[in-house]
Amino acid sequence: MKNGHFLTLGIETSCDETAASVVADGRFVMSNVISSQIDIHTAYGGVVPEIASRKHLERVNDVIGKALDDAGVSAKDIDLIGVTYGPGLVGALLIGVAAAKAMAYACDIPLVGVNHMHGHIAANYLEHHELEPPFMALIVSGGHTEIVNVPEYNKCEKLGGTRDDAAGEAFDKVARVIGLGYPGGPKIDRAAKEGDKDSIAFKRVYLEHGSLDFSFSGLKTQALNYLNQQRQAGREINVNDVAASFQEAVVEVIADKAVMAAEKYGQKRIVMAGGVASNSRLRALMEEKAGAKGIDVLKPSPVLCTDNGAMIASAAYYAFRAGEKPDLELDAIPGLEF
Amino acid sequence: MKILAIETTGKYGSASVIDETGRVFSADSREEMNHLKGMITLIDEAIRSAGITKDELTHVAASVGPGSFTGIRIGVTTARVMAQMLGIPCIGVSTLKAMAEGILDEAISKDALYVVPVINARRHQTYAAVYEAEFTSDHEKQSAVNIMEEKQYMIEDLLEELRTKLAETDGAKAFFTGDGIDAYGDIIRSAMPEGSYLFADEEIRYQHSEPVARVALRMAEGGKTLGYDELMPEYMRLAEAEQRLKAGTLSDRIKRASV
Ligand SMILES: Nc1ncnc2c1ncn2[C@@H]1O[C@H](COP(=O)(O)OP(=O)(O)O)[C@@H](O)[C@H]1O
Ligand SMILES: [Mg+2]
Q1: Distance, CA A307 to ligand 2 centroid (Å)?
Q2: Sheet holding B174-177, edge to edge
Q3: Is B15's Cβ below 8 Å from some Cβ in A?
Q4: Which of A197, A262, A335, B213 is deepest in the core (most CB within 10 A)?
Q5: Does residue A26 lie in a domain region?
């Protein structure tokens, strides 16, 4: 407690970001430290799990220390610790969990485990201080493409998800195929701004009528086929056009299905989350399509879209308030479901 | 002095508290690979059975490897963060050295000159070392002195070097310990001359925090302490992807390898 505010420390190490943050009253970000390993993993063309966990270990103390310093508080001011315990890379998760438990024990602070996906949704509470459930959530990240109904804090009903690749994965794969490299999402986003989205006809995959599921694995094959055809015909390839056309095929289906879900469940708001939520075209199209039906679209600023400790702190705060029991026997669960 | 020692590099986790007189209080788990879940409970049990509170701790020691990468990380991370939060120094103890320390009395009573901790690193690889018992002037306290380097050995190479050592001293025996016995027992039996070696019983074969605490106490007395951010794992091996990047054989498959 400091100045009458309940302080939560959030710790996140599920993939390649070592992150910690102090959040006041579940809503106000006092510090948000993110130590990214992207520079290290770029040399390998993707996240190497063993290296990720080695780096988390080296960095986690200082990231926690800096989160406290930046917030101008000390460990004894912290009322609650929240840590991501899944889903994610097991070796990466366990560094955050071990660190959180050691701190909770050493400083007598209650600890609750947070589902990383609940964290992504909670990022919106930090951005939109008046936002409360119920709402529809759209989670689009490197590992997830999900439409989730949120009737209450930390209650998530999954309505649909990808049957193969996640949206971010599709971005990353196609970026590799067209030579843009890793991380693919932001690079395609940038290239697409210079390209013509109607130049190449990528298939929109809607699956069965009314389905809220997704399938993106065919897009990589389509991109490969297109590149081969062009090469064989001796035609030049415009990378920006491929990026724009591919991106449109992904985000159009996502936007349509998210709006469909909100209408079906009578939700007046769609909340976006996950790394791909910072895609500029997806944001624009969501606003257009939802706006036409009188549905509001909320999204966190890009820094809260990527993996961060603040979203974990917020989710922990609401879980604790809802009566979640502190647990020093917390384990990492790499395949944790919603 | 009240040192907390953590051991999570092998199958079973344990925690001990040692005081300046050398009295040790331990808690250990019989559940395999339960380190992440069970560590804090073990630490709390060890501290309670020592009759102190965690705020009275003066150092946190961890067995830093070699061993299971995951296990090493859990122990080292726990030690680093506890030390950071309690504002006390860390001590990094070699896992192999602690294993040798743990069976020293037994080896001496069985008349073995050499102590050989062997950790199974799969595919005929081991992390191992050879130690010899050394007595202080009063002939009471003994400690293990490293005479063959702590490193990765192919089991066959380790045994060959060891046979050479044994041949230099007539009738000398080697006392093996560690899960390397479970993995390579048959190879050891067929490579070593009859009567030249002994195996540690299963009850004392695996890593335990008690000898970690004993080694840590001597290190603390010798001033060999570290800041929490200086306590590092001793993996003894690069990550596979790092080896390949260095060798220039990083394939697309490895690039996308997951856990
Ligand atoms: N502007 C963007 N457009 C499209 N995809 C993006 C953008 N920014 C990031 N991404 C994608 O988001 C994913 C990372 O998001 P993140 O939430 O960290 O995913 P996860 O935690 O599931 O790995 C990556 O696949 C990345 O390519
Ligand atoms: Mg994420």
Answers
A1: 5
A2: B142-154, B125-135, B114-120, B174-177, B197-199
A3: no
A4: B213
A5: yes
